[in-house]
Amino acid sequence: MQDFINNAILTPLQNLVTQIYAFLPNFFAMLLILIIGFVVGFLVKRILLLFLKLVKFDRLSFRMGFNNLLSKASIRRRPSEVIGLFVYWVLFFIFIMLALNALRLQALDILVAQFFLFVPKLFTGVIIFFVGYLISVFIERAVLIAAVNAEIYFARALARGAQLLTLVFFLAVALEQLGIGRNIVIAAFSLIFGGIVLAIALALGLGGRELGREWLEKQFGKKDRGTEEKKDMWKHL
Amino acid sequence: MTPGDSTLLSAPIHEKIKNLDKVDILVGIPSFNNSRTIAHVVRAVNAGLAKYFPNAKSVLVNSDGGSKDGTPDLVGQTSVDNLEMILVDHPVHFVNKIITPYHGIPGKGSAFRTIFKIAEMLNAKACCVVDSDLRSITPEWIELLLDPIIDKGFDYVAPLYSRHKFDGTITNSIVFPMTRALYGKRIRQPIGGEFGFSGNLAAHYLTKDVWETDVARYGIDIWMTTTALGDGFKVCQSYLGAKIHDAKDPGADLTTMYTQVVSSLFNLMETYSKVWPQILNSEKIPTFGFTFEVGLEPVNVNIQRMIDSFNLGIEALAPFHEKVIAHDDLKKIQDLTKKNVQQFNFPDELWVKVVYGYAAAYHHNIWPREQLMKSMIPIYLGRTASFVLENMDSSAQQVEDKIENLCQEYECHKPLLLQIWDNHKL
């Protein structure tokens, strides 16, 4: 009976206690890493916010159109706060992974190792998309203003098209970086881009021959078609 | 000396300057493919120098932007025939010529920089610059631009012309009234193209590091005028008569012209941000020359096209305008898009508020500046269309009176500018 109690209850209990004792330092290490992660994340966020305030990042974001992206996503925070929170959570997430690694559990070790292999790609992908968005906003504005001043009546659609193309391009590059559906992304991008070029070529070739001819004549100086508008012959300066 | 000054002139030009040593008068002619008109301009300059400054040692400087039509050769070959017909005295010196390409950003400003440099090296006492596409220049222009410098101690002579009532719309609607409201001097043609200036002022211009900006292009005229005003030089203006250019398509590059001139004006507000807020009203400046009536060629203005551009711009660029123009004012502008041509009227006060709003937005850097300036062009076209409609049957004097009213609106709303300059909130 004593043997039974020893083998069935006490030894497993002792093993459990031994394992818990062995696990406790890892657990406390995990907690400690989490606390350090929280503190580091908080401090880095504060320093980053101060720096962003110093370089007037919110004003720059407004100029670059980042605010539009936030308002479209119903985010009411200032751009600097969003960046601060993003960096905080990225850091904290990294510390969560480190904390899980401290538990020294084999299944988690593999997961953590894979995560750390993926982090640089994720970061690069996010940055590529972010920069791409800013460039697309700049292009949209530039095309819109140029088209309006060139008296093109579908200026807004043209500008949106230019922005969309730029975004699709950068999205494709970002997804390629992440290794997500690599071939599909490239194929889709090639198809969309090729399709647009073909559509423009067909539209100009079939529907817009007259328009194209008039434009070319205007550019290269043939003026006897009787359709040309009278030019404004006063000086602005 | 600013960076790059040493590379402005080639070794043979340095040698020529060394041989000339010093001159009393320098006349600069910037050029680019002006073979049709430059010979006339050179003849007028030569005759003017011989007739009015026969005892002065003079040099004519042609600063060329790489003409392919033989413009510099024409400058070299042109002389005045029958000079004795217009002269009482024989000139003591004949006019020397320096013909040089300019370096730097292609544009009138870079050409002027080379002229200033040569003026400084030759220690010229009085200088003037004239456009190379002028058809209406006479020898008297040279006297009118140089005499106030030589005999009356002025440092800067702005031109005063008779122009068609619809000519010079950027000048009339922005540059003249705003320069007057900001700096308190009523210079009627601050970006006229022809100017007289002292050797001291030429040397002063060279101390400024602006040659990689819009000043190197169309911005040079407003920059020269504002620098003279802002740095306290003595300014005056001379009436030259009618200004007739070589026929070109003047509306061809409105976007570039507008952006460069108005950006330069706004940039200079930052340079002289300690000067203009102190000035509360404006005064006349000394004016020389004999004013007379001239016949001016009629001009063709396509009002409907300007209104169409205005309507398109107001509809498509609303997100830009919302950040620059106060809500109520923008509403008034948007209401204009619903009017037909007969009802279309852009009031002076509204226009002044738009211009001041843009000046403040430029200062506060709310958008990339080039985009900001270009977003203003449709509004400018709307205002111009309204001005043309309003003055279709007005005489030149009535138009001048209306420009005077606009100037007073600019002056009267200056406190608003000061307010939004410090704190741009809409």
What general form of chain B does the structure show?
Answer: globular
Show unreliable segments of chain A.
223-229
Percent helix of chain A, as a range, is over 70%
- Number of DSSP helical runs of chain A: 8
* Cα radius of gyration of chain B in angstroms: 22 Å
What's the tally of helices of chain B? 17
Q: In what range is the share of β-strand residues of chain A? A: under 5%
The CATH C-level name of the largest domain in chain B is: Alpha Beta
- Sheet of most strands of chain A: none
Largest interface: A-B, 25 and 41 residues
Helix/strand class of chain B: alpha/beta
Q: According to CATH, what is the topology of the largest domain in chain B? A: Spore Coat Polysaccharide Biosynthesis Protein SpsA, Chain A
- Characterize the main sheet of chain B: 8 strands, mixed
Average residue pLDDT of chain A: 81
State the end-to-end CA separation of chain B: 43 Å
Runs of chain B with pLDDT <50, length 5+? none
Number of domains of chain B: 2
The portion of residues forming beta strands of chain B comes to 5-15%
Distance between the termini of chain A: 111 Å
CATH architecture of the largest domain in chain B, by name, is Alpha-Beta Complex
Oligomeric state of shown chains = heterodimer
Could you explain how this protein is built, in words?
The complex is a heterodimer of chains A (about 240) and B (about 425). With about 240 residues, chain A is mostly helical. Chain A has a domain at about 25-105. Helix content of chain A is about 85%, strand content about 0%. Chain A contains eight helices and no strands. Chain A has helices at about 1-55, 55-65, 65-70, 80-100, 105-150, 155-180, 180-205, 210-220. The relative contact order of chain B is 0.11. With about 425 residues, chain B is an alpha/beta fold. In chain B, helix 6 crosses helix 16 and helix 8 (about 220-230) runs parallel beside helix 9 (about 255-270). Chain B is about 45% helix and about 10% strand. Chain B has an eight-stranded mixed beta sheet, sandwiched between helices. The longest helix of chain B is centred in the middle third of the chain and has 18 residues, at about 255-270. The mean pLDDT of chain B is about 90. The interface of A and B includes residues 63, 148, 151 and 231 of A.
